[in-house]
Amino acid sequence: MPPPITFAHRGARADLPENTLPAFLRALEMGAAGLESDARLSADGEVVLVHDPVARGGPFRRRRVNATSAAALAELGVPRLADLYVEAGGGYELSLDLYEPAAALAVVAVARRYGASERLWLCSSDLGLLADLRPEAPEVHLVHSTKRTAITVPLERHAARLAEAGVGTLNLHRTEWTAGLVGLFHRFGIGAFGWDAQETRHLRELIEYGVDGVYSDHVARMVAVVAEWR
CATH code at 28? Predict the structure, then answer.
């Protein structure tokens, strides 16, 4: 079994400001196999990497992302997805949370432009959005990010539903996974990602469960623990 993908949550967030080009580049320098970020659309239709709908550049500079141009957002430290590919290339896995349905195909288009769409993991809590995206982007990895309490059908049925929709991975908080649950989804061909794995014991636990990807703010720690397992 291959080691889990090490996703640097919003870049090297524990070391540098999150979702910035320096943070992403630092995470790759530290050995992260993947980056994680959040995709939104600027006022001029560019895919930008920012978590909140309002971008902040200090206590007195705030701009709504969807009402601000990508150039103006860059002044607040918000990069475009295209900027990330220009600076870092595409030789890593990239996990992006989708907060706006309209951003989905725009993200795919940018990734394709840089030859990186086969290493793109698009995450959403909206299973319908992911299912609709499947035929439009057959090469992209789709991830259902949710909570166990939000799954209202038996877990076996949910695993089958993901497989039927072409959604290949389930992403849950680290506390919601067990070895048995990972095994259940694996039987349906569904991968298991665990997020918020900050401490060494959390990372080791997820690895022992057999997850396929982990997300952490502490890149050096995450990379070291996975290397220890290998």
Answer: 3.20.20.190
Tens digit of each residue's pLDDT (9 = 90 or more) over 18-66: 999 999 999 999 999 999 999 999 999 999 999 999 998 766 688 999 9
Place of tokens 């038996």: 154
Binning pLDDT at 50, 70 and 90, where does residue 227 land?
Answer: very high
pTM of the predicted structure, to 2 decimals:
0.97
As a whole number, mean pLDDT of residues 139-164 equals 97
SS3 letters across 172-223: EEHHHCCHHHHHHHHHCCCEEEEECCCCHHHHHHHHHHCCCEEEECCHHHHH
Tell me whether residue 65 is in a domain: no
The answer to whether 212 and 191 are in contact (CB under 8 A) is: yes
Domain range for 163 is 5-52+79-229
Would 64 be classed as within a structural domain?
A: no
Does 63 map to a domain?
no
Task: Report the alpha-carbon distance of residue 170 to residue 34 in Å, rounded.
Answer: 17
- Whether 67 is in a domain gets the answer no
String of b and e for 118-130 (b: at least 16 CB within 10 Å)? ebbbbbbebbebb
Nearest to 148 by CA among 115, 180, 181: 181
Structurally, the chain folds into a number of domains equal to 1
